[in-house]
């Protein structure tokens, strides 16, 4: 049991939480924005089915993660396993962490209900899905460093939410492109991936700008001094994140400027698969570092 509630397990669960949220954002954007780039109703329908499958998987993953997080928090609140159950109520109702958890507990069923409704009726539930998506994106800020900031806490929560949405819009959508669009492109007319990426590139660029702006604000708010960047554990973890993020951005720029122009025919698809695989591998490392960063004490707390 200790393996399921220890520090490493907590970091793994936080990483899975971020991955699940990014999957929800990416699946939503792909279904509504990128799937129409495919020629013909049949291919568009297959693309939307793939995106809905991502939403369902993300919803199931988040259901497990949300339950697991509560067990971990109860374990941290009451050391003895026999006291964990009695600690659950206190954790949820008496802590700031509990507020963020409750938001997740409400948001996950909204996402799942929307995805399952689409499967059963073929219709779309944009408001339910949108509400669940935004609540999930805001939930890390409501239980993390942002809500606990001694100043500008409201601004920090809003910008942290923007940060999570932007990460999902960029890297979550890219993951859905790799999983859904690339296999479909083998059967689609030449130029299909070019049209898909023409819709994705503005999303990725806007998301990168939003990530940079919100990240700069959070760094300024939490570090309080430039020296803290290399003199504290939080600062050093942030440096690691920035280095990997630079690698993700460089790979994305290579995809955009070098690989994408070759996609006028199917001969360019293997190059795209390789470069997207590299970008997503770096994204996994980025999510893992972020999962540690958000639980690292701030310089002011050290």
Structural description of this entry:
The protein is mainly α. The protein has 11 helices and no strands. It has helices at 2-5, 7-34, 40-77, 81-94, 96-121, 126-142, 153-185, 192-223, 228-231, 233-259, 269-293. It is globular.
Features of the shown structure:
about 300 residues, mainly alpha, about 80% helix, globular
Rg from C-alpha positions? 20 Å
Residue share in β-strands? under 5%
Helix content: over 70%
Large-scale geometry: globular
The total of beta strands comes to 0
Low-confidence stretches: 120-124
Largest sheet, in brief, is: none
Mean pLDDT score: 90
End-to-end gap: 29 Å
SSE diagram, text form:
Blueprint: H1 2-5, H2 7-34, H3 40-77, H4 81-94, H5 96-121, H6 126-142, H7 153-185, H8 192-223, H9 228-231, H10 233-259, H11 269-293
């Amino acid at each position: 049991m200790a393996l399921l509630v220890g520090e490493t397990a907590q970091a793994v669960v936080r990483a899975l939480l971020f991955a699940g949220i990014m999957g929800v954002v990416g699946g939503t954007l792909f279904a509504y924005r990128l799937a129409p780039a495919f020629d013909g109703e049949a291919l568009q329908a297959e693309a939307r089915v793939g995106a809905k499958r991502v939403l369902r998987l993300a919803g199931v993953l988040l259901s497990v993660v949300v339950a697991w997080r509560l067990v971990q928090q109860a374990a941290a609140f009451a050391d003895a396993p026999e006291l964990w159950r009695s600690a659950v109520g206190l954790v949820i109702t008496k802590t700031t962490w509990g507020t963020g958890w409750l938001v997740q507990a409400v948001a996950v069923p909204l996402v799942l209900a929307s995805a399952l409704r689409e499967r059963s009726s073929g219709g779309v539930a944009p408001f339910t899905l949108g509400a669940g998506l935004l609540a999930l994106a805001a939930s890390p800020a409501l239980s993390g460093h942002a809500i606990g900031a001694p100043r500008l806490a409201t601004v920090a929560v809003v910008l942290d939410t923007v940060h999570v949405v932007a990460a999902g819009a960029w890297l979550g959508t890219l993951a859905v492109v790799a999983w859904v669009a690339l296999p479909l492109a083998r059967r689609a007319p030449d130029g299909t991936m070019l049209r898909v990426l023409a819709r994705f590139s503005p999303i990725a660029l806007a998301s990168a700008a939003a990530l940079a702006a919100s990240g700069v604000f959070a760094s300024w708010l939490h570090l309080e001094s430039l020296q803290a960047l290399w003199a504290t554990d939080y600062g050093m973890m942030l440096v690691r994140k920035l280095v990997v993020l630079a690698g993700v951005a460089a790979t994305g720029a290579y995809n955009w400027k070098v690989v994408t122009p070759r996609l006028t025919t199917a001969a360019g698809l293997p190059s795209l698969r390789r470069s997207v695989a590299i970008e997503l591998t770096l994204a996994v490392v980025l999510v893992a570092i972020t999962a540690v960063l958000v639980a690292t004490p701030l310089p002011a707390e050290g």
